[in-house]
UniProtKB/TrEMBL annotation, chain A:
<comment type="subunit">
    <text>The complex is probably composed of two ATP-binding proteins, two transmembrane proteins and a solute-binding protein.</text>
</comment>
<dbReference type="GO" id="GO:0005524">
    <property type="term" value="F:ATP binding"/>
</dbReference>
<dbReference type="InterPro" id="IPR017871">
    <property type="entry name" value="ABC_transporter-like_CS"/>
</dbReference>
<dbReference type="GO" id="GO:0006970">
    <property type="term" value="P:response to osmotic stress"/>
</dbReference>
<dbReference type="InterPro" id="IPR027417">
    <property type="entry name" value="P-loop_NTPase"/>
</dbReference>
<comment type="similarity">
    <text>Belongs to the ABC transporter superfamily.</text>
</comment>
<dbReference type="GO" id="GO:0006865">
    <property type="term" value="P:amino acid transport"/>
</dbReference>
<feature type="domain" description="ABC transporter">
    <location>
        <begin position="31"/>
        <end position="267"/>
    </location>
</feature>
<dbReference type="Pfam" id="PF00005">
    <property type="entry name" value="ABC_tran"/>
</dbReference>
UniProtKB/TrEMBL annotation, chain B:
<protein>
    <submittedName>
        <fullName>Glycine/betaine ABC transporter permease</fullName>
    </submittedName>
</protein>
<feature type="transmembrane region" description="Helical">
    <location>
        <begin position="456"/>
        <end position="472"/>
    </location>
</feature>
<dbReference type="InterPro" id="IPR035906">
    <property type="entry name" value="MetI-like_sf"/>
</dbReference>
<feature type="transmembrane region" description="Helical">
    <location>
        <begin position="597"/>
        <end position="616"/>
    </location>
</feature>
<dbReference type="InterPro" id="IPR000515">
    <property type="entry name" value="MetI-like"/>
</dbReference>
<feature type="transmembrane region" description="Helical">
    <location>
        <begin position="430"/>
        <end position="449"/>
    </location>
</feature>
<feature type="transmembrane region" description="Helical">
    <location>
        <begin position="25"/>
        <end position="43"/>
    </location>
</feature>
<keyword id="KW-0812">Transmembrane</keyword>
<keyword id="KW-0472">Membrane</keyword>
Length: 345, 668
C-alpha cells in the first residue's frame, strides 16, 4: 500500500437511529435536513459524512455534545454499524467484514481511548493493559512484558498492581492510553480522552500525548469539544453539527476562512494570532521586491509579533521548511490578524 | 413546592378513600357493588356464590396435563418424570451424599468415617469472617458454630447446611444462566417475566408437592424445592447487573478484540460483580428460609426439630432452636453482604506468597490444625449430650410458669378475646357475607382507584379465576387474615417508623434491626406468637403482624428520610408545626416509598398466612397442607395459583400507584 492512499476513507456515511433506519434512508427524499428527519422519528447521528484520514495524520473532530462526533468515530471502528455509505479502513470495506475478521482488525490495527476511561474495575493496571493481548491469546509471559513496557511509556511504573479505583483520574486515563497502545495499533481513536480531567491535569496530559505522538507517529482520530485543545493538537479539524461535517480543514484555514456561519461563530473568540502561521499568509512574490532576512513559515503570527510591529518592510519574505523563500507576506495583513478586526477601524 | 405538597396530600387521601375522587368509572363500580350487597336476599344464587355445577374441574384438567408430561413413554407420554428422577437419583443425590458425609457423617462417598469436627468448621468460619469483615464478623461466624455445638444442635444444623450447600450453588448457576439468557434475548425476558412474578408469589407448599412427585421424597425433593424457590431473585439481579455495565467498558472490551464469549466471561460478568453477589446473598437467604420449611415434607434438620417442638408446645427448646436459626441466618447474611463490599487490594511488588495468600494459608492451617487436635480431644470433635449447655427443659418450665401466671393469662386472654370477638370474627363474617359478584367489584374498584385501568382489568380476571376455582370461601378467609393482619401491622409499624425517623441515630438503629429481622427465615416469626397466644386463630394473625411490621417500619423510615432536606426546610420556614410538617410535607412525599413497603408487607402476609396453616386455620393454606400428604398435584396447583393471583392483584395495583406517584413528584 502506498503512503498516499488514505488509512480511513469514509464516503457518504449515514448513521440513523430509529425503528427501521435502513428502510427509511432508502425512501428518504434527497435534501432532507436534520429536523425533517427528526420529525419522521429518526435521529441522524451521522449525516452524509465524507472524510479521509491520511497515514500519520491527526484529524481532530470537534463539535458540541450531540453533534455526532462520538457516533462518527464509533462508525470508523464499527462499534456502530452505519446505515448507508461506505467506510474503508486500509482499503477494506469494514461493513463487509465478517465478525471474525472485524475482531482480527481490532486486535491488530486499532486502539481506542475513552472519555470515562472504560477500565475493567476487577483488574489491576497490569491486567487492564494486558487485556487486549490476552484477548488475542498471547501467552502470559509475553503479554506481561509488553504491558510493562507500555506502562513505563505512559509513566505509571510502580503502579502495576493497583486497581483502577486506587488511581486518580489522570492516572486512570494513562492506563486507558497504555491499554490502547499495547497492541501497537496503526490507528488510534481518542474519544474526548481528557475532558473528564481537571484543567491542569488536562494540559499535562496533552503534552504527554504530544510527546507520545511525536515518538510513535500514529494515524489519529481525536474527538474533543474543546477548541483550544483541537487547535493545539490537530493537523486538520473537522467541525460537526447535527451529524454533518460543516468544515474540514487545517486550523489556519478554519480560523482564517470559515466556510459556514456556524464555523465562524465557533471561531469568533479564538485568538487568531496563536493559530495562524506565517506560511498561510504568504502570497506569490509576483514582482514585489524580496529584501532582507525571511521569516520561518512554521511560526505563528503571535510568535513573530515583536518583529511585525518593528519591521519597516511592507512585505516580508517567508521561508518554507527547506529554507527557500516560498512567498511574501503583507505586513498590514499580518498585523490585522495580530490585532484583530479593530485594526480596520 | 407547597403546591406539590398539597397536591400529594390530595392524592394520598384519595388513595385511602377512593370514593373521594369523582371518577365516574370508580363511582359506578362502587355503586354496583353496594347495590349487589343490598339486594343480597333477592339476588339470584349465582351472583352470591357460584353454583358447584358451574365450576370447571380445573384440578382434574391439571392432573391430566401432568399425566401427559410425566407419564410413561411407552404409553406415548412425554416421560418427564424419568428425566427428573434420573437427575434426582444421579447427580443431585450424589452431591447431597457428599455434603451429608462430610458434615453429618452419613455413610456415603467419600466415606469419611467421621463428620468434620465442629471445631474445624467453626475455625474455618472464623477465618472467612475475618477475611471478609474483620474481627466482628469473625466472632459472629465462629461464635455461631460454637454456640450450635455447645447447644447440642450440631447435627441438626449440619443436616440443614448440607442441603443448603448443594441448593444454593445450584440456584446460583441456574439463576445466572437464565439471567444471562434473559439479558441477551428480549423475547426470553418477556416470556419469563410473568412466570417469575407468579413464582415469587406462589406459596411454598406449591413448590413442595411437585418436588416430591418429580424428585423423590427426602433431601433431593427438599433441595429441588429450595433451589427453585431461591432462583428468581438471582435471575433478576443477574439481568439488572449485566444491563448496568457501562457502555464504555463494553466498547473497550470490543475494541480490545474480545469475542462474544470473552466479552461475557471477562467483561460483562466481572463488571456486574456487585449485582451478581447481591443475587448470591438473596439466594443464600431464601435457601435457608426454604430449607427450614422443608420440614413440612419431613426433612430432618433445624426446621424439622423446630416444627416438632412447636407442635408439642415445648417452647424452651423451640426457643433455643429459634436462636440457632437466627444466628445462622445473620451469619450467612453478613458474610455474603461483606463479600459484596469486599474489593480486591493490591500487594506491593515482591510480596512473598504466604503474605499474598495469607488468608488461604491461614484457613488451611486453622482447619487442619483443629481437625488434627480434634482427634485426641473428643470435645473438639463432638459435644456429647451430657456436655451440652442446652437448658431447653428448664426454659420450657420458665415459659410454662410465665404463661400460667394469672396476670399474663389475663392480658393475653383479653387481647385474644377482644381481637377475636370484636374485630376478627365480625370482619371475617362480613367478608364472607358479601356476595361473590359484589366482592369482585369491590376489589376491581380498589385496583382501579389505586392503580388505574390496567391493574383493574387484571384484578377482574384474577379474582374471577379465583371464583371459578371453587375455593372461594377459603380464599376469602385467607384474604381476611392478610387484610386484618396488615391493618394491625400498619397501626403499630408506621408510628414506630415515624418516631424512629425523627432522629438520625434511631433511624439507623431501627433500620439495622429491620434489616436483621428480614434475614430471619419466616418460620421463626411463628415462635413469639405461639409462645404468647398458644395455638389459636389469633396466633395466625399476630404472627403475620410481626412478620409484616418489619417492611412497613423499614420503608416508613426510608421514605421519610428520603424527603429532600430543602423541602422540610421550606416547610419549617413556612412556619409549619411538627404535625403539619409531617402530614402535609413529609408523609405525602414519603408515600410512594411507604407504598412499596406496604406492598412487600402484603406479599409477606400472603406467604405467612399459608405457613401458619399448620396451626389450624380454615383457609387455602390448610387445604394446601393436606395435599402434601397425597399426590393431588392438580388441586395443589389450583390452590397455589389462587394465592398467587390474589397477591398479584395487590402487587400490580400498589406498585403502579407508587411508580406513578414517584414520577409525579419527581422523586425518581
Amino acid at each position: 500500500m502506498t503512503t498516499d492512499s488514505p488509512v480511513i476513507s469514509c464516503r457518504n456515511a449515514w448513521k440513523l437511529f430509529g425503528p427501521n433506519p435502513r428502510q427509511y434512508l432508502k425512501s428518504m427524499p434527497a435534501g432532507h435536513g436534520y429536523e425533517d428527519i427528526r420529525a419522521d422519528g429518526y435521529i441522524a447521528g451521522v449525516k452524509d459524512v465524507s472524510v479521509e484520514v491520511a497515514k500519520g495524520e491527526m484529524l481532530v473532530i470537534m463539535g458540541l455534545s450531540g453533534s455526532g462526533k462520538s457516533t462518527l468515530v464509533r462508525c470508523f471502528s464499527r462499534l456502530h454499524d452505519i446505515t448507508g455509505g461506505t467506510i474503508e479502513v486500509e482499503g477494506q470495506d469494514i461493513m463487509a467484514l465478517p465478525e471474525k475478521e472485524l475482531i482480527e482488525l481490532r486486535r491488530s490495527k486499532m486502539g481506542m481511548v475513552f472519555q470515562s476511561f472504560g477500565l475493567l474495575p476487577h483488574r489491576t493496571v497490569l491486567e487492564n493493559v494486558a487485556f487486549p493481548l490476552e484477548m488475542r491469546g498471547q501467552d502470559r509471559h509475553a503479554r506481561r512484558e509488553r504491558a510493562l513496557e507500555v506502562i513505563k511509556l505512559v509513566g505509571l511504573e510502580g503502579r502495576e498492581e493497583y486497581f483502577p479505583r486506587e488511581l486518580s483520574g489522570g492516572q486512570q486515563q494513562r492506563v486507558g492510553i497504555a491499554r490502547s497502545l499495547a497492541i501497537e495499533p496503526d490507528i488510534w481513536f481518542l474519544d474526548e480522552p481528557f475532558s473528564a480531567l481537571d484543567p491542569l491535569i488536562r494540559r499535562e496530559m496533552q503534552d504527554e500525548f504530544l510527546r507520545l505522538q511525536a515518538m510513535l507517529g500514529k494515524t489519529i482520530v481525536f474527538i474533543t469539544h474543546d477548541f483550544d485543545e483541537a487547535l493545539r493538537l490537530a493537523d486538520r479539524i473537522a467541525i460537526m453539527k447535527d451529524g454533518a461535517i460543516e468544515q474540514c480543514d487545517t486550523p489556519d484555514q478554519i480560523v482564517m476562512d470559515p466556510q459556514t456561519e456556524y464555523v465562524r461563530k465557533f471561531t469568533e473568540d479564538v485568538d487568531k494570532a496563536h493559530v495562524v502561521h506565517a506560511s498561510v499568509l504568504a502570497k506569490p512574490v509576483n514582482g514585489h521586491a524580496v529584501e532582507g532576512d525571511p521569516i520561518a513559515g512554521d511560526r505563528t503570527i503571535h510568535q513573530i509579533a515583536r518583529q511585525l510591529v518593528s519591521d519597516p518592510r511592507e512585505h516580508l519574505p517567508v521561508a518554507g521548511k527547506d529554507g527557500k523563500i516560498m512567498g511574501i507576506m503583507a505586513r498590514q495583513e499580518a498585523l490585522e490578524v495580530l490585532l484583530g478586526d479593530s485594526a480596520n477601524g | 413546592m407547597a403546591d406539590v405538597a398539597t397536591n400529594a396530600t390530595r392524592t394520598s387521601l384519595s388513595m385511602r378513600q377512593p370514593g373521594a375522587t369523582r371518577d365516574p368509572v370508580l363511582v359506578a363500580l362502587l355503586l354496583a357493588a353496594i347495590i349487589l350487597c343490598a339486594a343480597k336476599p333477592v339476588l339470584p344464587d349465582f351472583l352470591v356464590r357460584l353454583p358447584e355445577a358451574w365450576i370447571p374441574p380445573l384440578a382434574q384438567w391439571l392432573d391430566a396435563f401432568f399425566d401427559v408430561i410425566t407419564g410413561d413413554m411407552q404409553e406415548g407420554r412425554f416421560g418427564l418424570i424419568y428425566i427428573t428422577r434420573w437427575f434426582a437419583e444421579g447427580p443431585l443425590d450424589f452431591l447431597l451424599g457428599v455434603t451429608a458425609n462430610l458434615l453429618e457423617g452419613k455413610y456415603r462417598w467419600p466415606y469419611m468415617s467421621d463428620p468434620i469436627p465442629w471445631a474445624a468448621v467453626a475455625g474455618l468460619a472464623a477465618v472467612i469472617g475475618y477475611y471478609l469483615g474483620g474481627w466482628k464478623l469473625s466472632l459472629l461466624a465462629g461464635g455461631t458454630f460454637v454456640w450450635t455445638a455447645f447447644m447440642g444442635q450440631w447435627e441438626l444444623t449440619m443436616q440443614t447446611l448440607s442441603v443448603l450447600l448443594v441448593a444454593a450453588p445450584l440456584g446460583f448457576f441456574v439463576g445466572l444462566v437464565i439471567g444471562i439468557a434473559a439479558w441477551k434475548y428480549k423475547w426470553f425476558d418477556n416470556a419469563i417475566k410473568p412466570i417469575l412474578a407468579v413464582m415469587q408469589t406462589l406459596p411454598f407448599y406449591t413448590y413442595l408437592l411437585p418436588a416430591v412427585i418429580f424428585f423423590k421424597v427426602g433431601p433431593t425433593a427438599g433441595a429441588i424445592a429450595t433451589t427453585i424457590y431461591a432462583t428468581p431473585p438471582m435471575i433478576l439481579m443477574t439481568t439488572v447487573g449485566l444491563k448496568k455495565v457501562s457502555p464504555e467498558i463494553v466498547e473497550a472490551g470490543k475494541m480490545s478484540g474480545a469475542t462474544r464469549w470473552q466479552m461475557l466471561t471477562k467483561v460483562f460478568i466481572p463488571s456486574a460483580r456487585t449485582e451478581i453477589l447481591v443475587g448470591v446473598n438473596q439466594v443464600i437467604m431464601l435457601c435457608l428460609a426454604m430449607v427450614v420449611l422443608t420440614a413440612f415434607i419431613g426433612m430432618p434438620g433445624l426446621g424439622g426439630k423446630l416444627l416438632a417442638m412447636m407442635n408439642s408446645l415445648k417452647l424452651g427448646r423451640s426457643f433455643e432452636i429459634g436462636i440457632t436459626i437466627v444466628l445462622v441466618a445473620i451469619t450467612l447474611d453478613r458474610l455474603s453482604k461483606a463479600w459484596v463490599r469486599k474489593l480486591p487490594e493490591h500487594h506491593p511488588k515482591d510480596t512473598p506468597f504466604y503474605i499474598r495468600y495469607k488468608y488461604t494459608v491461614l484457613s488451611v492451617v486453622v482447619f487442619a490444625g483443629l481437625y488434627l487436635l480434634a482427634q485426641p480431644i473428643e470435645i473438639l470433635n463432638e459435644v456429647g449430650r451430657r456436655q451440652s449447655l442446652s437448658m431447653g427443659r428448664e426454659i420450657d418450665g420458665v415459659f410454662e410458669a410465665f404463661l400460667n401466671l394469672d396476670s399474663v393469662q389475663a392480658i393475653t386472654g383479653t387481647i385474644r378475646y377482644v381481637l377475636n370477638v370484636w374485630v376478627l370474627i365480625p370482619f371475617r363474617d362480613a367478608l364472607l357475607w358479601i356476595p361473590t359478584s359484589a366482592f369482585i367489584l369491590l376489589v376491581v374498584a380498589f385496583a382501579y382507584g389505586v392503580g388505574g385501568k390496567k391493574p383493574a382489568i387484571y384484578a377482574a380476571i384474577f379474582f374471577s379465576i379465583v371464583a371459578f376455582s371453587g375455593w372461594w370461601d377459603r380464599s376469602v378467609i385467607t384474604l381476611y387474615s392478610v387484610l386484618s393482619a396488615m391493618a394491625i401491622s400498619m397501626l403499630i409499624g408506621i408510628p414506630i417508623g415515624i418516631l424512629a425517623a425523627r432522629s438520625e441515630k434511631w433511624s439507623e438503629r431501627m433500620l439495622l434491626a429491620c434489616d436483621t429481622a428480614q434475614t430471619f427465615p419466616s418460620f421463626i416469626y411463628l415462635l413469639p406468637a405461639i409462645m404468647l397466644f398458644g395455638i389459636t386463630d389469633t396466633t395466625v394473625v399476630l404472627s403475620i403482624v410481626i412478620f409484616t411490621m418489619v417492611p412497613l417500619t423499614r420503608y416508613t423510615i426510608e421514605g421519610l428520610r428520603s424527603v429532600p432536606a430543602e423541602m422540610t426546610e421550606a416547610a419549617d420556614m413556612a412556619g409549619c408545626s411538627r404535625w403539619q410538617k409531617l402530614t402535609s410535607v413529609q408523609l405525602p412525599l414519603a408515600m410512594p416509598t411507604m407504598a412499596v413497603g406496604f406492598n412487600q408487607g402484603i406479599m409477606f402476609a400472603f406467604f405467612m398466612v399459608i405457613i401458619a396453616a399448620f396451626i389450624g386455620t380454615q383457609d387455602l393454606g390448610q387445604e394446601l397442607q393436606r395435599t402434601l400428604a397425597g399426590t393431588d398435584l392438580g388441586k395443589n396447583f389450583v390452590l397455589g395459583i389462587n394465592v398467587s393471583l390474589m397477591a398479584l392483584t395487590f402487587d400490580m395495583a400498589i406498585l403502579s400507584w407508587a411508580n406513578r406517584r414517584k414520577k409525579a413528584l419527581g422523586l425518581d
